[in-house]
Amino acid sequence: PGGTPSDAALRARAQAVIPGGLWGHLNAARLPEGYPQYFTAAEGCRLRDADGREYIDFMCSWGPMVVGHRHPAVEAAARRQAEQGDCMNGPAPVLVVLAELLVDTVAHADWALFAKNGTDATTACVTIARAGTGRRKVLVARGSYHGAVPWCSPSLAGVTAEDRAHLVAFDYNDTNSLDAAAEAAKGDLAAVIVTAFRHDFGRHQEMPTPEFARHLRALCDATGAALILDDVRAGFRIDLAGSWEPLGVRPDLSAFSKAIANGHPLAAVTGRERFRQAATEVYTTGSFWCGAVPMAAAVATIGELLRIDGPAHMRAMGERLRAGLDALSRRYRLPVRQTGPVQMPLMIFDDDPEWAKGDLFCATALRHGAYFHPRHNMFLSCAHGEAEIDRALEAAEAGFRAVAGR
Length: 406
Ligand code: PMP
Known about the structure:
Layout: H1 7-17, E1 39-43, E2 46-49, E3 54-57, H2 72-84, H3 94-105, E4 111-115, H4 118-133, E5 137-141, E6 167-170, H5 175-184, E7 189-195, H6 210-223, E8 226-230, E9 253-256, E10 267-271, H7 276-281, H8 292-308, H9 310-331, E11 336-339, E12 346-349, H10 356-367, E13 370-371, H11 386-404
Parallel strand pairs: 3-13, 5-6, 5-7, 7-8, 8-9
Antiparallel strand pairs: 1-2, 2-3, 4-10, 9-10, 11-12
Helix pairs in contact: 2-8, 3-8, 5-6, 8-9, 9-11, 10-11
């Protein structure tokens, strides 16, 4: 009473002053019935909504939160920098520290530059590749998400054919279609951009096959095109050296954002020596891109991930979640498929073309205190411990029970 307005009251007010109530991917209208839109607090892997309900969070801000909401070391680093200055006439010294840290940590990186959003980073990679090769064509996998500007937006509203004139589509993990696309771009191939694994919305996830990754590297070596790894979503959860490092395939350019600063706004492009000159020549900048607070947060976040081996922790917790969900699926005789790396899980029910089971499962689990997503990959964090996974599995059991009609 007298405190925060309810979720419903905020949504009603927003309808009048915000297009569609909310732009973009965080609009709760895209989620099953009952999901909150507004949040008032977050701590570790827990969220509280405007109506005072609490959840164990398996979306992690859709990626950014990786060591826990309000992580003490990250927030202390951000606060220390904020007390000295953030958006100034040039960067703070922490820029150099962060660039050195990325060059030391990311295997292919000889240099780094920074921006705000993942879209800035993927777009800069494409621009740098075109500048460095003097060519125009970029191969993009059908259905892959690379950002929210005309060359890559999943919506065609406001997009012209010219915005995409030099893109050629291929199918992820399909070397024949990759070769055909490269042939179509012959002589004018600037780059191939790929996500770290196939995580297209609303379908099972797919890891890159080693053959596909190696074939792609060989294609880029043979043609001089840049291999761009869009590591915006997977970066810092699979391997701190870069998400294709376990495959032994190194990109020429990588785009990072999301988890790089545990929720502080920052993106990065890393690249090989060969593209340093092109990265020097392109004009890539923004009013806030040298902001020092997110950079201080990034140094602390990456430091913490290195210190505790964050990917190993998330893998262990992801395996516990996957095994628990599999056991429930068997117990309730409701077959599911779980795909992708365990630290970025996705569970889709068999025979669920309209998402009726998935939506009911998630809506029920939500009421029992676990925030899952039925069709977008989820995210684990270093703040998820065994107790939180087990608690979430109890909520998941309520979800399975509802789908089983018990
Ligand atoms: N690439 C990938 C693979 C992404 O997942 C995203 C964000 N979902 C982006 C690019 C764009 O990042 P941002 O939303 O920060 O612009």
